[in-house]
Design a protein that fits this description.
alpha+beta; four-stranded antiparallel β-sheet; three-stranded antiparallel β-sheet; 6 helices; globular; disordered N terminus
Length: 304
C-alpha cells in the first residue's frame, strides 16, 4: 500500500463525510512527481546549499539601509514571479508545470529558488491545493475546475531571501471557496495595516483571529510567519492567532505575515513525505503572504 492509499484509508471516511459541509471540491493527495530541477553553477546559492548549514539570528534583526535595499531587490523578484502565475494557472495544468515555470523565471532573474533542497524539500516552489494547508510538493496531478491553489514563492537573490504567496482560484470556484480566499486576503491586509513602530508582535495574531472568527473561519495555528533576510527563517515568530509572543516591532525589521485559514477545525496532519500538510477533516485551506518592512510610521509591503 503506497502513501496515497495509506493516507486515504486513514482519512478518507472523514473527508467523504464533510465534502458538502465545506463546499464542492476534490480532496487532494500526493501523486507521482518529477525529479528536482537543476540550478546552473553561476547562480549564487544560500549557505544551506553550499555549506550545509542554516544560519538563524538570535534576535529579530534591525536592518541597515544596505540590507533593506537588498531585501527590496529580492522581494521584487519574488513578487514579479508570483504575479506572472496568473497567466498559467487554469484547469489542466499540473503543479509540476507550475514548479517548472517558477524555477525557470527564478533562474532567468539570476536568483536561486529558496525552497529547493532546503531541509530536504525536493522542488522549487510549494503548491498547496484545496485540503493541503501548506508545503504541498508539486506533482503530476492536473488542476481541476473549482480548485484553489496556494503558490508559495521564495527566491534568494544577491544574498537575500524574498518570500510571498497567494491562493489562486482555478476556473469556477464555489461560493464557499471564494469566501475562504477573500477573507484570508482581508486578514493579511488588516494585519499589515496594524503594524508599525513599537506595536507588539502578538497584535498581528489578535487582529487576524478576530476577523477570521467574525466570518466563521478558523486560523490554523501551527503555521507562523518569520523574520527573513540573509537567512530564510529567523526571529521574530509571527503568530496568526491569539498569542503572547513577546517583543515590539522596530523600524528596519523585515518579516513575513502568512495566515492560513480554513472552514473546518484547526487540526492538521503531516503526510509520509514529511512535508505535505493536510487538514485533518478535509476542509480547504487558503493562505496569503507578504514580506513587510517596519518603517518610521507603519509598514511597507516589499512583495507588492
Amino acid at each position: 500500500m503506497d502513501i496515497t492509499q495509506r493516507t486515504a484509508a486513514a482519512l478518507g471516511r472523514v473527508w467523504r463525510t464533510n465534502v458538502m459541509r465545506f463546499g464542492v471540491y476534490d480532496k487532494v493527495l500526493p501523486v507521482e512527481t518529477s525529479p528536482s530541477r537543476i540550478v546552473p553553477d553561476h547562480i549564487e546559492k544560500p549557505d544551506y546549499i553550499t555549506q550545509n548549514t542554516i544560519y538563524v539570528p538570535e534576535a529579530a534583526e534591525v536592518k541597515t539601509i544596505e540590507k533593506i535595499n537588498g531585501m527590496r531587490e529580492s522581494c521584487k523578484v519574488a513578487a514579479s514571479i508570483l504575479n506572472q502565475l496568473h497567466s498559467i494557472i487554469k484547469p489542466g495544468i499540473t503543479t509540476d508545470k507550475i514548479d517548472e515555470f517558477v524555477h525557470t523565471l527564478t533562474v532567468e532573474a539570476g536568483a536561486y529558488p529558496s525552497p529547493l533542497h532546503y531541509m530536504g524539500f525536493p522542488k522549487s516552489v510549494c503548491t498547496s491545493v484545496n485540503n493541503v494547508a501548506v508545503h504541498g510538493i508539486p506533482d503530476l496531478r492536473e488542476l481541476k475546475d473549482g480548485d484553489i491553489i496556494n503558490v508559495d514563492i521564495t527566491v534568494f537573490f544577491k544574498q537575500y531571501h524574498g518570500d510571498c504567496s497567494k491562493t489562486f482560484l482555478v476556473g469556477n470556484v464555489d461560493d464557499k471557496g471564494q469566501q475562504l480566499v477573500g477573507i484570508t486576503e482581508e486578514c493579511l491586509d488588516i494585519a499589515i495595516k496594524c503594524c508599525g513602530p513599537d506595536v507588539p508582535f502578538c497584535h498581528i495574531g489578535s487582529v487576524i483571529y478576530r476577523h477570521a472568527k467574525k466570518n466563521g473561519l478558523t486560523v490554523l495555528p501551527a503555521f507562523l510567519g518569520h523574520g527573513i533576510g540573509e537567512y530564510f527563517h529567523g526571529p521574530p515568530e509571527i503568530y496568526h492567532t491569539l498569542n503572547r509572543y513577546p517583543g515590539l516591532m522596530k523600524p528596519g525589521m523585515t518579516f513575513t505575515i502568512e495566515p492560513v485559514l480554513s472552514h473546518g477545525r484547526e487540526n492538521t496532519v503531516i503526510l509520509e513525505d514529511d512535508w505535505t500538510v493536510v487538514t485533518e477533516d478535509g476542509a480547504r485551506a487558503a493562505q496569503m503572504e507578504h514580506t513587510v518592512l517596519i518603517t518610521g510610521d507603519g509598514a511597507e509591503i516589499l512583495t507588492k
